[in-house]
Amino acid sequence: MDRSASQIIKDKLLALMVLRVVLALVFLGVGSWFQLKDYYFATPLYYPIHFMVITIGILTIVYGLLHKRCRRVVQFAYIQITIDLLLITVAIFITGGTESYFSILYFISVIGTSMILGRRGGFYAAFVSSVLFAVMMNMDLYRLLPQQFKVFSYNAAGVADWSFVMTTIATHAIGLFTVAYLTGRYVEKANQMERRLEEREVDLGRLETLNKTVVENIPAGIMTIDKEGRITSFNRAATSITGYELREVYLQSVYELFPSLLTARPWPVSDVTRPEKIVKTKDGRDICLGFTVSFGAEGEATNIIIFQDLTELKSMEEQLRRDDRLKALGELSASIAHEVRNPLASISGSIQMLSKDMDFDGDKKQLMGIVLKETERLNRLITDFLLFARPASASEKAFIDIADVISETVKVFSNSPQAKGIEIEVRLDHGLFVEADAHQLSQVFWNLFINAAIAMDGKGGLSISAGAEGRGASGACEPSVKDKGESVRIEVADTGVGIAGGDLGRIFDPFFSTRDGGTGMGLALVHRMIEEHGGVIDVSSSPGRGTRFTVTMPRVNLDASQRETGT
Asked: Which segments constitute the Histidine kinase domain (predicted)?
C-alpha cells in the first residue's frame, strides 16, 4: 500500500477513535440518566456500563500510542473493528440481550468499516456482527449468559420467544449485509470521484504551471489591469522592457505609471492595427511601445495589454531609410560631381589667366577674387561629394592604432583658430587596432572636433576618449557592428548649445545643417565613412548642455609582427 493510502486509513482510524469515545460517553450518560430516574426496567447495578466505558477508554489510549508507530495499517484497522464488534455485543447483552435496542450499533460499525476499508471491510464487519449477534441472542435465549449483569430488562416475563429471536437474527443479518453492500458501493464511487478530482486538480495544476511558464517566457510584455485601471500582473518581459518589477507596479494605476500609453477610452482594442506610443522607463528613457489591448475576464484581468519595445526596430528602420537615401544621393553626387568638375576646372583656369593678362582695378579686381573664391568652394564641395560617394577601398586600409590617429588629429585641432578658448580633455587607451583608412578616420574626427568647436563658440570643454568594449559592456555590443565581439568605442562630447530633439534624426542627412553657411556635408561624410568601416555612430544631445557622439568600430587583435608591419 502506498504512503498516501496508508495515511488516509490512519486519518480515518483517528476519527473512529474519537467517535468511539463519544459513543462511550453517550452510553455512560444514558445509563446514568436511567439510574437517576430509577425506571422500573433498570436495575440499580450499573457496574457493567462503567466497566464498558473504562475498557473503551483504555483501548483508545492503547490505539493512540500505536497509531503513529503501526506500519500494517489495514491489519491494525481489522483488529480495532473486531474488538469494537465484541464490545458492541457485550453492550447489547447488558442492555437487554434479546430485548436490547442497541443492536443499531452494529449498523454504525458496518458503515464505519466500509468507509475505512471499503466494501470488503464492510462485508467482514457484517459477517462478524451477524455471527456475534446470533451467538449472543441464542445464548441469552437459553440463559447461558449471566443474567445478573443485565442493566435493563424490558420483558416482565423475562423469556423471549424463539421465533422472535430467529426472525431478529435473520433481519439483522440481511440488514447488515445490505448496509455493507450499499455503503461499500457508495464509498467506491466516492473514492473514484475523489481520484478523478485529484487527477483533474493535478492536470489543472500542470496547466497552470505551463501557462505561467509560457507567460513568463514569452518575449512580449504582458500586463493585466482591473476595471479601475490598476496593474494586477506583470510578466518577465514587461519587467525587462520597462525596468519595473511586479512588486513596484502591483495595484498601481496604469494612467499614472504610463500616462501616455492609455490616454483615453475606449482603448485601442484591435487584432489588425497596433498603436505605437512613447513611454518612459523606470530609468527615464523614452521608448517606443507597440501594443494591443484585449478584453479579459472580470476581476483582476478586465483588460490584457500585450506590448513590445519597438525602439530598436524603429532605429533600424530609420537607419535603412537613411542608408537608402544616402546610397541614392551618393550615386547622384558622383555623377554630378564628375560632370561639374571638368567645366569648373576650365572656368577656374580661364579666370586665373584673365586675371594675369588683364590689369583689373577696384571693383573689377574684387569681383574676380570673389569668382575665384567661390570656384574653390565649389571644388571643395565636389570633392566632398566624391568622398561621400566613393567608399574606402581595401588597398587604402591598414591596421592602425586608433589612439595614434586621434592624437594626431587632436594636435592639429588644438593649434587651429577654432580651438581657441576650448579646454580639451583626452583619455585614450593605446593598442586599440582597427582596419581602416587613416586619412578618412582623421577626417571623421576632424569634422567632429570642428562641429563641437562651432557649437561651443569659443568657450567650453571638449572631452575625447577611446577604449575597448567587450560583448557585455553596456549591456551588449551594438548589433550593427561587423564581426561582433570586442570593439573600440570612441566618444566625443562637448558642452555646447546641443541639438534640438527634432533635428537629431536628420543631422546625418546630406545638405542638412543647423547653422548659416554650412554645407550640411560634414556629418553626412562622417556617417558614411564610419559605416564603410563596419562601424556605427550614435548621437545624444541635451539642448543647452551639450552633445555626445559615440563611434563604435570592430577591433582587430594583432600579434607583434603584424603591429610592426601594419598588415
From this structure: 335-557
* Residue 449: C-alpha distances to residues 383, 426, 453, 455 (Å): 20, 12, 6, 10
Closest CA to 431 of 400, 410, 472: 400
Residue 305: band (very low, low, confident or very high) from pLDDT cuts 50, 70, 90 = confident
* Cell 542638412 sits on residue: 512
Number of structural domains in the chain: 4
Domain termination residue (choose one: 389, 404, 439): 389
pTM of the model: 0.45
Residue for cell digits 586665373?
352
Closest by alpha carbon to 225, among 286, 306, 280?
Answer: 306
Task: Let me know whether 350 and 270 are in one domain.
Answer: no
Q: How far apart are CA 93 and CA 99, in angstroms?
A: 9
Cβ atoms of 317 and 230 closer than 8 Å: no
pLDDT at residue 335 in the model: 67
* Residue range of the domain that includes 273: 221-309
CATH number of residue 282's parent domain: 3.30.450.20
- 216 found inside a domain: no
Query: How far is residue 228's CA from residue 253's CA, in Å, rounded to a whole number?
Result: 8
Say if 208 falls within a structural domain: no
For residues 98 and 168, give the distance between their C-alpha atoms in angstroms, rounded to a whole number.
9
Phi, psi for residue 92 in degrees, rounded to 5 = -65, -40
pLDDT value at position 477?
37
Give me the count of residues in the chain. 567
Task: Flag whether 213 is in a domain.
Answer: no
Helix-, strand-, coil-residue percentages of the chain, each rounded to 5: 60, 15, 25
CA distance 228 to 300: 10
